[in-house]
Amino acid sequence: MYCREDLRKLKRITLLWDYIRAVTEQNQGLLMGESREMLFAD
Fold first, then answer.
1. What's the Rg (C-alpha) of the chain?
2. For residues 5 and 26, what is the distance between their CA atoms, to the nearest angstrom?
3. Is the pTM here over 0.90, yes or no?
4. Which of 23, 25, 29 lies closest to 42, judged by CA?
5. Which residue among 23, 24, 25, 28 has the highest number of C-beta atoms inside a 10 angstrom radius?
6. DSSP 3-state assignment of 3?
7. What pLDDT does 32 receive?
8. CA torsion 21→33→29→25, rounded to 10°?
């Protein structure tokens, strides 16, 4: 992902990136074609 340096420090951007990272890590099996189940972060 790409974001301008000045925007990267905004709390809403940090929270969104953290959520996307968590969901991606939780769904590694789905993304790699090893699973058919989508998981969502809390």
1. 13
2. 27
3. no
4. 23
5. 23
6. coil
7. 95
8. -10
Question: How far apart (Å, rounded) are the C-alpha atoms in residues 39 and 27?
Answer: 6
| 3-class state of residue 41 by DSSP | coil
Residue whose token pair is 């990272």: 21
CA 12 – CA 28 distance, rounded (Å): 24
Total residue count of the chain as it appears in this document: 42
- Indicate the domain borders of the chain: 1-42
What's the sign of the alpha-carbon dihedral 26, 29, 30, 36? Answer: negative
